[in-house]
Amino acid sequence: MKIYRVGGAVRDALLGRPREDTDWVVVGATPAEMEAQGFRRVGADFPVFIHPQTGEEYALARTERKSGRGYKGFTVDSSPSVTLEEDLMRRDLTINAMAEDEDGRIIDPFGGRRDLEQGILRHVSGAFVEDPLRVLRVARFAARFDFRVAEETLELMRTMSASGELDALVPERVWTETERAMSEPHARRFIEVLRECGALRPVFPEIDALFGVPQPPQYHPEIDTGVHTLMVLDAACALSSDPAVRFAALVHDLGKGTTPREEWPSHHDHDRRGAKLVEALCQRYRAPNRFRELAVMVARYHLDCHRIGEMRPDTILGRLEALDALRRPERIEGFLLACEADMRGRGGRQDGPYPQADLLRRALAAARSVTTEGLDVGNMSGPAIADALRRRRIEGIREALGSYR
Question: Which of 53, 92, 165, 193 is deepest in the core (most CB within 10 A)?
Fold first, then answer.
């Protein structure tokens, strides 16, 4: 029996990054031998065991062959005769197909270390095409490391995208990869790689439709809506590490992809249309409520946030109510960050100020500070009380923003 550290832990150590999760592969052992040493077996489809002291996962070396049977359509062989190289060969990318023995020696049969040094994402073998989710995984690793995709791997990904296999991806798995990508430092690379290999259209047709759609140059010197979207995502990454804020920035302008050509470069009502598209996208991939709610808010109300300095106090209160900010003020900061990213994601505006955020904060603080103190609530009906509070809130907003008008 031999035990090796494998995968991301080896890769990250070579990059000088802290090891997060450590995966172990055991060669030359049977399930009975593992259990005899105190390991606890988990999972019914292939042998994975929990170490009795560390709680880390140890998997028997295995091969996987696409068959339409077994674990997720694969036939698995985890017999003691499976070698370390055979186990590493089933992995997706060369940078993830390295192992480290107990003496710290690196076993690298597929050139992963070289690709790591050169910043290349390259598939290990032709078996790459057997799992369409790998297309999204490659894009996510590009977002993490800002590596380029090897041309031969890109060709495989194009073939997989054109085959229609991506249509069968489990929605939750697509969302998991997307959420992880939005947490990475170079999130725009996720979209760029998907677009380069033809996967953006089948997976996120609403985002793909933005590229090539013009916008008014006086507001958008970058012209192209798809380019603007990537710039906004970049700005969101600079402003926040929250993947929900970044996702909201990514999908804030989906409505522009459905504007009739004869109306270009104007995009009247794109905020309303976009909110519906975001809702549908989030339902399709079963996005968590936190992501869905913020993204819909930003799509629907980002234009209003930009124009807050021009609005009447009663209109501002109406927007705060629509955002449910009086009851849930904690939601407003993510909304403001995504709106600021939208303003910064334009040619020449990357470092520009966004005073609208402070205006909305002041308006919200003024509205929330209003109480029933001084009202004869004992002699007032519910609607009368609500009307009085609303008038007080409007006046409070007027006073709070008066010096900024």
Answer: 193
Check whether 125 has a pLDDT greater than 60: yes
Taking a C-beta distance cutoff of 8 angstroms, is the pair 185, 141 a contact? no
For the chain, what are the domain ranges? 1-115, 220-405
Q: What angle do CA 198, 200, 206 make, to 5 degrees?
A: 140
| Contacts by 149-153, CB closer than 8 A, 24 or more apart | 149/120, 149/121, 149/122, 149/193, 149/196, 149/197, 150/115, 150/120, 150/121, 150/122, 150/123, 152/122, 152/123, 153/121, 153/122, 153/123, 153/128
CB 82 within 8 A of CB 74: no
Please give the biggest Cα pair distance in the chain.
86
pLDDT value, residue 240: 98
Q: Residue 173: phi, psi to the nearest 5?
A: -70, -35
Q: Which region among 11-15, 66-70, 117-121, 301-305 has the lowest average model confidence (pLDDT)?
A: 66-70
Residue 349 pLDDT:
84
- Count CA within 13 A, CB hemisphere, residue 163: 15
Q: Tell me which CATH code domain 1-115 carries.
A: 3.30.460.10
Band of residue 404 on the pLDDT scale cut at 50, 70, 90: low
Asked whether 60 and 76 are in contact (CB, 8 A), the reply is no
**DSSP letter at 100?**
E
Helix (H) or strand (E) holding 190: helix 188-196
Q: CA–CA separation, 104 vs 113, rounded Å?
A: 14
Sign of CA dihedral 205, 182, 300, 214: negative
The predicted pLDDT at position 252 comes to 98
Neighbour count for residue 68 (Cβ, 10 Å): 7
pLDDT confidence tier of residue 78, bands split at 50, 70 and 90: confident
**311, two tokens:** 């609005």
Q: Do residues 166 and 160 make contact, with C-beta atoms less than 8 angstroms apart?
A: yes
Write phi, then psi, for 120 (nearest 5 degrees): -125, 135
